[in-house]
Structure formats: C-alpha cells, structure tokens
C-alpha cells in the first residue's frame, strides 16, 4: 500500500510541476539615453520580448525629481514630469519579440530621470528600462562663428589692421634705436 501511495504522490507532483509555466518578460536596452536638445524630438528603438505568444502588455512611465542617476524604483513615484514628454504605444500584443519607438522631447532645461515599465497583462510580472536626459545650456551657441567672419569679410579687416599695427610697432622700435627721417614714415604710410 505504501508503494502505491508513493507512486501516486510522485505522479501527482510530476503532473503539477509540468503544468505550471513561468513567464519570461524582458526589455532592451536597460537604460535609454536620449541626449536631446530643447524642443527636439528624439526616438529610440526599444525591444520587448517574452516566451509566450499573444501576450497582452501595457506600458507606463514613472518619474522622479531627483537630479542624480539613482536606480531605486521606490523614488520614481510621479506619473509625469514637467518639461519631459515621452511618447510610446500604451497597450500592445506581444508575439515573442516586438520593437517599438519610444520618443522623448525636452520642453525645458533640466534633468529628466524616469523609468518605462512594461506590465504583462493580468499577471504580476513587469520589467522596466531607465530613462535619462540631461539638458543644460551648454548646447547653446551665440555670436559669430568663423564661417560668418569669412562671409562678412571681417577676418580680412582684422588681418589688415593687425598688419598696420605691427608695422607701426616695428617703426617705433627702430626710431628709438636710431633716428629715421620723416621720409621713411611717409613712405610706410603710403604703402
């Protein structure tokens, strides 16, 4: 009787183990660096994968006001962040692997730190990818560029003035060493 009980217990355990399945869910890349300029829309390709077909997934984002790159999910408790705009599909049907475009726009200067979370339908499985964008004033260039100087002829004027000043300096040094007549000065200015 005990052998029969052991056999039935073993068969029951094998049946229970084989009927259970684990969900594999992943996202790549683990960190999305956008590096956008002000009001520039930058898109990156993000891949979501699973071991199941026809898996309903939903995507949502969470943000933090922290400026440092902290990877602790509990501080990401804001549903949106002023100045940071993320655009992506909210609900998908996943067949093993799917690539989506995630687009970011920085609407003001500052740091945007967030996480894009993928939730597997009604299951308790979810994964995320960190979102990073730091927008500072360092990208802003003002004033004339070298190309502008060439196009307006300013460089030629600057070189001409520099040549005249260098000539006057040389003449001043020579005149202190020895007396130079007024004719030499007149000849230099005539040229």
Largest beta-sheet characterization: 5 strands, mixed
How many strand elements? 9
Structural class: alpha+beta
Q: Helical amount among residues, as a percent range? A: 25-40%
What is the 3D shape?
rod-shaped
Q: How many structural domains in the coordinates?
A: 2
Q: Which radius of gyration do the C-alpha atoms yield?
A: 35 Å
CATH class of the largest domain equals Mainly Beta
At CATH's second level, what is the architecture of the largest domain? Sandwich
The CATH topology of the largest domain comes to Immunoglobulin-like
H/E series:
HEEEEEEEEEHHH
Low-confidence stretches: none
Question: What does this 3D model show about the protein?
Answer:
This protein folds into two domains: 24-136, Immunoglobulins (Immunoglobulin-like); 146-190. Strands 2-9-8-4-6 form a five-stranded mixed sheet, with no helix packed on it. A four-stranded antiparallel sheet has the order 1-3-7-5, with no helix packed on it. The protein has helices at 2-19, 146-152, 154-177, 182-190; strands at residues 25-28, 31-33, 41-50, 55-64, 84-87, 91-94, 97-106, 110-120, 126-135. The protein starts with a helix and ends with a helix. It has 191 residues and is of the alpha+beta class.
């Amino acid at each position: 009787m005990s052998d029969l009980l052991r056999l039935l217990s073993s068969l029951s355990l094998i049946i229970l183990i084989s009927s259970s399945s684990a969900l594999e869910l992943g996202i790549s890349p683990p960190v999305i660096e956008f590096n956008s300029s002000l009001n520039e829309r930058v898109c990156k390709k993000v891949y979501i994968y699973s071991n199941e077909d026809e898996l309903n997934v939903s995507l949502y984002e969470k943000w933090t006001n922290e400026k440092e790159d902290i990877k602790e999910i509990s501080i990401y408790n804001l549903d949106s962040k002023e100045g940071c705009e993320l655009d992506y599909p909210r609900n998908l049907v996943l067949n093993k692997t799917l690539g989506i475009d995630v687009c970011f726009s920085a609407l003001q200067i500052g740091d945007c730190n967030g996480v894009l979370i993928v939730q597997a339908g009604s299951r308790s499985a979810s994964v995320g990818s960190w979102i990073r964008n730091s927008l500072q004033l360092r990208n802003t260039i003002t004033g004339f560029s070298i190309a502008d100087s060439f196009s307006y002829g300013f460089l030629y004027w600057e070189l001409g003035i520099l040549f005249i000043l260098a000539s006057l300096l040389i003449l001043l040094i020579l005149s202190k060493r020895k007396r130079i007549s007024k004719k030499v000065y007149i000849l230099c200015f005539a040229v």
